Model the fold of this input.
Amino acid sequence: MEKKKLSLAILISGGGSNLQAIIDAIKNNKLDAQIEVVISNQVSASGLDRAARENITTYVIEHKSYPSRGAFDQAMTQVIDAVKADLVVLAGFMRILSKPFIEHYQHRLINIHPSLLPKYKGLNTHQQVIDNNDKFHGASVHFVNQELDSGPIVIQAEMPVLATDNAETLAARVLIEEHQIYPMVIQMIAEGRLSFDKNQLNLDNEPLTRPLCWKDNQLT
Ligand code: GRF
Done:
């Protein structure tokens, strides 16, 4: 009997290039997962077109149509649970999630953030890197806990900041790295190699005590 694929619910707010990277990884047999649903809180998110092109079910759940954050999150929960998603993937989803939502998906909710966390939580990460003359920048994939852009980090892609960089060039280069590491982490979960349990990340049956590092297209 064929093994059940890891089922994903992907939450987006914008362009959805990370969503596309996940779609492509599945198509190229690099990721044993199935996207059950894509939810956007923005009707104008062009990531919705990417999903529709692949015949993936999409939902627009506009946060502004709900009286509270909790009610909005509850509407998303209904859709995610109806498709029995194993993993909830935040891919450029620009809303803060409520405590009950995060608790409901504890250990199966992941996010990608464009900085070397714990540096630069929140917005405008690339400009902050420029303003602070940082030598390195990158992206982090982490399980989500109750604090913004926190939670145990699985992997960080790291790259040098060039003298010629500005926020736009950095954002573009970081995205290229994001597209490598996000499907990679999801595949580790799909293979049962990576888990987050009792506040502990485990990879290949060993506690993961420091984030994996993706640099120059290599994992260390
Ligand atoms: C990415 O930089 C991601 O790290 C951040 O939002 C951006 C989303 O880009 N959370 P896209 O919508 O996947 O193209």
